[in-house]
Amino acid sequence: MGRNARPVSKATKALAEAIREAQGAANLSGAELARRAGIPYSSFRKIREGEVTISWEQIRMIVAALGIDATDLVTRAEEIEDGSSR
Length: 86
Fold this sequence. Notes:
By secondary structure, the chain is mostly helical. Helices cover 65% and strands 0% of the residues. α1 (10-25) packs across α5, α2 crosses α3 (41-48) and α2 (30-37) crosses α4 (56-66).
């Protein structure tokens, strides 16, 4: 973490895990998902690893690239954050 970087929240980490799960379910590499979402891979990698807070615009780009609803991604992130399993 850089000198001025703030720690990310548990919710951000949970959202990152939900993105990784959805990426796996879609059988897409990180580079391919980033390309489809129109996000530079270096930025997408940080999102996927929960290193940065993600914007609503980025969520929308990622779910569009995955072909899923944002509601499903957010619901899964909430389950992960709460410790619920699928």
